[in-house]
Amino acid sequence: MDIKVRVWRQSGPSSAGQMVTYDVKDISPDASFLEMIDVLNETLILNGDDPIAFDHDCREGICGACSMVINGVAHGPEKATTTCQLHMRHFKDGDVIDVEPWRAAAFPVIKDLVVDRTSFDKIIQAGGYISAPTGTAPDAHATPVPKKDADAAFEAATCIGCGACVAACPNGSSMLFTAAKITHLGLMPQGQPERDTRVIDMLQAQDDAGFGGCTNMGECAEVCPKGIPLSLIGRLNSDYRKAISKH
Amino acid sequence: MNDFWIEGEPVVDKAAPDGPVETRWERRKFAAKLVNPANRRKLTVIVVGTGLAGGSAAATLAEAGYRVKSYCYQDSPRRAHSIAAQGGINAAKNYRNDGDSVYRLFYDTVKGGDFRARESNVYRLAQVSVNIIDQCVAQGVPFAREYGGLLDNRSFGGTQVSRTFYARGQTGQQLLLGAYQAMERQIGLGNIEMNARHEMLELIIVDGKARGIVVRDMVTGEITTEFADAVVLASGGYGNVFFLSTNAKGCNVTASWRAHRKGALFANPCYTQIHPTCIPESGSHQSKLTLMSESLRNDGRVWVPKRAADCQKPAAEIAEEDRDYYLERIYPSFGNLVPRDIASRAAKNVCDEGRGVGPGGLGVYLDFADAIKRLGRKAVEAKYGNLFEMYERITGEDPYATPMRIYPAVHYTMGGLWVDYDLQSTIPGLFVIGEANFSDHGANRLGASALMQGLADGYFVLPNTINNYLAAGPFPSLSEQDAPVVEARKQVEDRIKKLLEINGDRTVDSFHRELGQIMWEYCGMERSEEGLTKAVGLIRALKEEFWTRVKVPGKGEELNQNLEKAGRVADFLELGELMCIDALHRRESCGGHFRAESQTPDGEALRHDDEFSYAAAWEYFGADGKPTLHKEELNFEYVHPSTRSYK
Ligand SMILES: Cc1cc2nc3c(=O)[nH]c(=O)nc-3n(C[C@H](O)[C@H](O)[C@H](O)COP(=O)(O)OP(=O)(O)OC[C@H]3O[C@@H](n4cnc5c(N)ncnc54)[C@H](O)[C@@H]3O)c2cc1C
Ligand code: SF4
Ligand code: FES
Question: Is the pTM of this model over 0.95?
Answer without folding.
Answer: yes
